[in-house]
UniProtKB/TrEMBL annotation:
Pfam families: Complex1_30kDa. Residues 107-228 form the NADH:ubiquinone oxidoreductase 30kDa subunit domain. This is NADH-quinone oxidoreductase subunit C. It is found in: Cell membrane. SUPFAM superfamilies: Nqo5-like. It is a peripheral membrane protein. The lineage of its organism: Bacteria, Bacillati, Actinomycetota, Actinomycetes, Kitasatosporales. Keywords: Cell membrane, Membrane, NAD, Quinone, Translocase, Transport. Residues 1-29 are annotated as: Disordered. The keyword Secreted does not apply. One of its GO terms (cellular component) is plasma membrane. NDH-1 shuttles electrons from NADH, via FMN and iron-sulfur (Fe-S) centers, to quinones in the respiratory chain. The immediate electron acceptor for the enzyme in this species is believed to be a menaquinone. Couples the redox reaction to proton translocation (for every two electrons transferred, four hydrogen ions are translocated across the cytoplasmic membrane), and thus conserves the redox energy in a proton gradient. Its EC number is 7.1.1.-.
Length: 248
């Protein structure tokens, strides 16, 4: 497909990057959060993939440097300018800006999340009117910020998509709720709380939504024990995942 026929609403259709400024590179750069052994990182005999000897470094993309390319710079400039007009230094609210795989992510300090989100929604040059949800992520090796919440924002006015990412330590899993800015996050924040244990301060009814009310722990954390129940299938007894033999 020629450039003339590409969808102008794609992630970053106008980006032009020089060889020395390729943002969000992983490779040997970025932030190493752990070294994974085996295909799935299992260390209790649960890796049945046959790749138990595989060793690789798990890295998060590092911060990008300007120019980001295309409309990414416009959004970053407008956001930083709007925060300055409110008397907030952008560097105090935006921990880093990441451009990776054609997508733009602002890493926000959690105490400034609500103000940044409201600015992105209300500023005429930004107009990210819709939040399509929040995703939880758990990086046990990312010390001091093991829990991450990722908000996906869409501007219907400008046909743009960005992300906000906020982190919190395992010992203090509190992040401000965005319910008052984006009411559609009601159930999304409940689900993230249910599975990851992130406490969204200010949410009107932060209760479990998928698991039973008396469930212990948060099942999608990576340190949650791998378990299950044996299953009978056509006369054969299939053991629970944590009881299957390992090929590593």
């Amino acid at each position: 497909m020629s450039d003339a026929h590409r969808d102008p609403g794609g992630p970053n259709p106008e980006r032009a990057l020089s060889a020395e400024n390729l943002p969000g590179q992983r490779g040997q750069g970025g932030e190493e959060i752990r070294v994974q052994r085996g295909m799935f990182g299992a260390n209790n005999g649960g890796d049945t993939s046959g790749y138990g000897g595989l060793v690789r470094s798990v890295r998060l993309p590092g911060p990008a440097s300007r120019p980001y390319g295309g409309w990414f710079d416009e959004v970053a400039d407008e956001l930083e300018g709007a925060l300055e007009e409110q008397g907030l230094l952008p560097g105090n609210a935006i921990e880093k800006t990441v451009v990776d795989r054609g997508e733009l992510t602002f890493h926000i300090e959690r105490e400034h999340l609500v103000r940044v989100a409201r600015t992105l929604r209300d500023d005429p040059a930004l107009r990210f009117e819709l939040c399509t949800g929040v995703s939880g992520v758990h990086y046990p090796g990312d010390k001091g910020r093991e829990l991450h919440a990722v908000y996906h924002l869409r501007s219907i006015t400008h046909n743009r998509v960005i992300r906000l990412e906020v982190s919190a330590p395992d010992g203090d899993p509190h992040i401000p709720s965005l319910f008052e800015v984006y009411p559609t996050n009601d159930w999304h924040e409940r689900e993230t709380y249910d599975f990851f244990g992130i406490v969204f301060d200010g949410h009107p009814a932060l209760t479990r939504i998928m698991m039973p009310d008396d469930w212990q722990g948060f099942p999608q954390r990576k340190d949650y024990p791998l378990g299950g129940i044996p299953v009978e299938y056509k006369g054969a007894q299939i053991p629970a995942p944590d009881q299957r033999r390992s090929y590593s």
